[in-house]
Amino acid sequence: MSRGRRLGVLACALLVVLAGCGAQEVSRPETAAATTAPATTTERPAATTDAPADDADTGIRYRGDSLSFAAAPVFDRVESLLGVSADPPAEVTVENASSWFRTNATDRPRPTGTGRFGALVGVETDGRDADLRGTPNGATSPFGGVSIYPGDGSSVALEVVLAHEFVHVVQFQRNQVSAVRRNVGGTSTDARWTSRSIVEGVAVWTETRYVETYGLDAPTGGERTTTLYSEATPGTPFRHGQGAYLFGYEYVRNKSSGLDRVEGLYERPPTTSEQVLHGLDPGSEPPVELYVRTIAEGNTWRGSTTDTLGEAYTRVVLENGVAVPTAADAAAGWGNDRLVTYRERPTANASFVWVTRWDTAADATEFRDAMNATFDADGQRTGDRWRLDDVRATTVRPDDTTVVVAVGEDSLLDALDVSLDRETVVLTTNLSAANATATTDAAPAVATATTGPVTAGSPSSPPFVSTAPPPRFAQASPAPQTTTPEPSYVHA
């Protein structure tokens, strides 16, 4: 599949946004949780301004437009299903298309950080706003604000969306969102996806029980989420985001005896997407050891922030080059990874080195073959390098269970050397090496070596600076410290 034909959705780079069942390229307020349901009819709510709806009876008023059903009974039902008591929001804002889709595709900033890495390896972004204007959606802030976008949805579809958002109201009030993030730990891409899978998994399961318990003529949350995931374009941010809802729903449903028993999942959640995808108990199959150190010799490329992408993101990367089942199989042996961002100058575009560690040598082989196939699908191969539009890529295997992927400027690939220091993967960049090997599409200047096991989550070793010329700057990055905000996925 060519890079130009793949369809993706640019996730909003907002730190606190939760999403209900999909991803849509819409910039929401910085503290919002979002949900969508598929459009089922063209029934539209009556337009009013600050409409009270059933305000006298319920205390929940509609602001902006109005919906055809009372909001308070929906909140009461959600409380009953969850077995909790919570304060309802004072109002629900019903938005129109112009306010909901306020970010024009031409105004979107180019991706940076992990988003740029994804774009370089084929996890492409593209707007689908026109396709989503008929789809009901919703968002909830940590402060209890709820917004609904009706689209072309029927009243029953909107009721399900509102039920989903009310789950988030309860979660924020009971500090369950912050609890699961704290207990998953870290701010990496994988940690955030894992946290979201539990938060959204509970909301999707509540949708399912809501439809079943109250006899609504609508798809259950599980059915809807399955459809959205299966129809999502492989290899896109949309699919990565949607996976958190589907696999989170399956995990929560299988690990809890009922919605009134989910509290333990916030306090002892899975800590990796691997555990969510495979239904593993928290604490089982923890990430394998992976230490990565970056050293810059002279005035050359320097590694800075790091991230851990996880098995769920690895699947999406590989879906750009191989069939979906093959991508899932090739990602299944994931043990750990570290994405290091490189810049030649502080203001230059980023290039990347992705260090991956696998459970077995066979798993590493399967991943490298699939990664190479992804580059084959996207670019032109010369020797051990690929030309991907205006960047280059290569893969190298320093030992049986480690595969290193480099993608970015040619000069980084020329300058990069991969070696081992006992249990640490050392990434050294050297300007002299880059100048000596700066031939277009030449074989990589990446030295192969043998690597031992590598770790995430161990305490950082102190930075090493040598006083001998040329200056050597070393940065140890045993645990992910990413400055890239989590992609926020709004329902689609």
TrEMBL record:
Q: Where is this region: Disordered?
A: 27-58, 450-492
Origin superkingdom? Archaea
Composition bias type Low complexity, residue spans: 27-51
Protein name, UniProt field: Lipoprotein
Please tell me the species this chain comes from: Haloarchaeobius litoreus
